[in-house]
Amino acid sequence: MTLKTYLIRCKRSNSIWLFWIFINSLCVYLNGILSAKAISTIVNFDLQGFLYLSGAILAVNLIWVLQIYQNSKASEKAIQEMCTEIRKDIVKSIESKGVIRFGSKSVSAYTSWLTNDLNTIRDLGFETLELMISQALNIIFAIIAFFSFNYSLLFTILIFFLLMVNLPKIFTKKMENKAVHFTEKNEELVKAIDDSLSGFRMLSNANQLHFLMVKILSYSKKYSKSRVSYSKTFGGLMSVQNGTSFVSQIAMLTHAGVLYFNRLIPIGAVSSSQYFSSIIFAGLTGLTANYAEFKTVNKIFEKFELEGDQSIHESNVNKQTWKKFIDKVEFQSVTIERDGKIVLDNLNVKIEKNKKYAISGSSGSGKSTILKAINGEIPISKGHIFYDNIDSKNMNFKDLHENISYVSLEDHIFNESILFNLTLGREIEDSKIEKALELFYLRDWINGLSHGLETTLSEISQDISSGQKQRISLARAYLEEKPILIIDEATDAIDKERRYQIEKHLFSMTEKTVIFVSHHLDENIRSLFDKIIYLD
Description:
Membrane topology: Multi-pass membrane protein
GO molecular function, one term: ATP hydrolysis activity
CATH superfamily of the largest domain: P-loop containing nucleotide triphosphate hydrolases
Main location: membrane
Pfam family, one: ABC_tran
Transmembrane segments: 16-38, 50-69, 139-165
Number of strands: 9
Number of helices: 16
Order of helices and strands: HHHHHHHHHEEEHEEHEHHHHEHEE
Strand order of the largest sheet: 6-7-8-3-9
Largest sheet: 5 strands, parallel
């Protein structure tokens, strides 16, 4: 991804935007040229010519007013269209990561990509590009104006042009690095804010709310320091550029004055020489500084170049298909390491079709690790996992997710309608939804809501218990109708009587393979399991 990608992709909107930028520069040029001619008519006592040129200047400025209005609309439309395209590509890249690599960054980091980093791209990329194009066109028109006055003026312009183009190179690399640095510090700040506020209740109960201020201010200062550091470098660039610009404008005025005294240009050209020289050298000052800022955007885009997961989350090209669960899922000498620590060591387990399994063990023994490994969420260090004799390393992970429903203690509830949370946007028969509501004790609760299934959960989030959230997640998995159901402590928050009835139903489904982990393994349902796997 680069900025060029989106400029081309949204070429129609950008062409309209470019047209109005061109009109702006044309108006700047005509305003200067006509003003120069008008001053010359005053010196020559040409009233008719002066009035004619005054009318022309008025017409140009009226067009300029229209341009300002149209450019505002065109620029915002083009920028928003490109920002939407960037968001689409970032989301597609995130989708392609798979669960393993997705978890390598925090949700707040991805949020920062889609919000703060995109705002930086807008500011330093698209809006800076608009300034650069406008400045470049203004410079070109100003050079044309000087050529029309006297070609010798171009030599003075060339000397200062070369000087101003080469000076910013001293600052460019440093600015690129510092721009990336402050976006990284911004990610850290967003993550710190999210982490601190997520623990508000816990901090309040411990009378430690001052921790919010301490942590957020700590990361805020780091972010502020990175922005100040960037601004110092940018300020150094601007001071050097502006100093050179001031000297160049004085040089151009002096050159034009000498030409006038030698009767080589009219007085109007002298008065306009400072106008056009300020356009050229102020434009060069802005153009070179803006270009240095503009180049920093490519570094930000590099953050979005995401690779797919290894093993089952690599590209699906040349992968074996697993259309339907037929026989078994088998662990053969599987070892899993996390952060240098062995979580599972040389595990051999066979999960057979339509059987019910419970996994029991102390905290940290690897119960959830087994479930996540089956679901392709964590890589294995040694050994093999076979799905109907297909090695996980050769598995098309989309096929994996067509066969497995996974319900965990941490399942997310979307800020959408209850219906969406049950179906995730899939078309499901009303009769099946009604059955799920009954089986998971959701019907009475939903009947009490004014909008029923269309109730947006974000509007009543404070009124949803952990047990209700778990029942929604279980109903969602039930409606998926996949042959394998993994339940990772996803019934622990449900009251005892309902939990027993729900678990009894789940473990009685003859056409479902169930793998179950819970801290509350009820004695009454132990007989429903074909096997209980004990971990040390």
